[in-house]
Amino acid sequence: MRLILIALLCLALPGAALAQASPAEQTMMRTVEAEHDRHVALLERMVNQNSGTLNLAGVRAVGEMTRAELEPLGFAVRWVDMSETGRAGHLVATHPGPGRNVLLIGHLDTVFEVDSPFQTFARGEGARATGPGIGDDKGGVVVIVAALRAMQAAGTLADANVTVVLTGDEERVGSPIGIARRDLIEAGRAADYALEFENLAMDDGAEFGTVARRSSTNWTLTATGRTGHSSGVFSEGLGYGAIYETARILDAFRRELPEPNLTYNVGVIAGGTPAAIDAEGFSVTASGKTNIVASTAVARGDLRTLTPEQDERVRGRMLAIVDDHLPHTEAELTFADTGYPPMAPSEGNRALLARLNAVNRDLGLSEMAEFDPARRGAADSGFVAADVDTLGGLGIAGGGAHAEGEWVDLDSLVRQSQRAAVLISRLSLGE
Q1: Does pTM surpass 0.85?
Q2: DSSP characters for 278-314?
Q3: What is the pLDDT of residues 40-72, one digit of tens each?
Q4: Which of 211, 275, 344, 376 is 20 to 30 Å from the Cα of 304, by its Cα?
C-alpha cells in the first residue's frame, strides 16, 4: 500500500521536478505530500489554543506543542522566560551539525487576545481555512515543522546545522527590547543564513520573495502653550497655544518629509486644557472650551523606513521641524525604544532569493520576484538582518492578517514546506 501511495505521489509531481531534484529532495516532496493531513491537524490544534501576546499561559502552551514536534527530530529545545519584560518567553531549538548554520524565525503569539470573539479554526470551501493567527504566524510555524520532518525522512537533517527561534511577543514586543530580543539577535550573529516564516507575499495570485521589510517605530509628540482667554490668541502675550503648534508640526511632516519607502502615520491625537495620553499610548483624554486657548496637545503615530540611514535622516528632520516653535509654545518628540529595525535590502538577501528560485526551478514551481517592501509590515527578521543574509515571507499563503476572518490556503502549506525543506538542506549542507 505504501509503494502504491508513493507511486501516486510521484505521478502528481511535475516531470521537471523529478528530473532536477535529487533523490533526497524527491523524498522530501513526497513526505510533505503524505503528511499534509497531519500538519493541517497540527495547525488546527495550534489555532484553537489562544495565544494572544498577553495570554502568557497560552503562548507557553503553543510553545509546548512545538517542543513536542521538534524534540523527536533531535532538537535540543529550551524555553527562555521573559517575565522581566512582561511577556511569556521564547522557544529556542538547536540541531547542531557540521553544516552551515541556518536560523529559522517565527512567532508563537497572535494579535487576538482571550477577549476576542475570533477564537477557532474553521474549514471553508476547498483549501481555505480561517482562524486567529492561522497565517500570522501559526501557519509559518507548521511550515517549519513540516520541512524539518521532511528533511529527517530524506536523511538531510542528520548533518544539518539548524537553529529555530520562535518569539512569544512579536505582535507586542516586551520591554526593555534589548532583553526581549537578546536571544534572537545572538542567534542571528551566529548564523550563516536566516529564513523568516511570516506569511508568503502574494499579489493577484503570484507569489513573491521578501528581501526587505520596513522598520516600525512609534513616536509621541507633546506640545504645550500658554493658556488664557481665546480673545488673546495669536497675540504677543499669549501666542498660538498647543493645538496650533501641533497642527504646524504635523502639517510640516506631511509637506516636507515624503520620500520613497517612507510613511509616518498619526494614529491618535487630542488637545485641550488639559490633554493627556495613557501609559500604553493607546488612549487619549482632553477637555476644554472654545473660548480657552489650549494648554496641551498630544499626538502619537508610527514611522516606517527601509534602511537605518533613512531612519536616522528622517528622525533628524522630524526633530528639526518640531524645534521651530510658534510663539510661546514648546514641543517635544520622542521615539519609543521598542521599535522594529528595518530588514534593509542587500545583495546577500537577493542572493538568498536566487537560491530559493533555483529550488523553485528544480521542483517545478514558479519563480518569485522581489516583493515591494512598502507593502510588507515589520517582522523579527529586522533584528538579525544587519548581521546575516536574510530571506523573509517563507510561511503559508493567505490574507486578512490581524483581522477577524484571517485565512490561509492550506494547499500552500505543501508548496512552502517543500520549498523550505530543500532550501534549508541546500544552505546548511552547501549544495
Answers
A1: yes
A2: -TTSS-EEE---TTB--SEEEEEEEEE-SSHHHHHHH
A3: 999 999 999 999 999 999 999 999 999 999 999
A4: 275
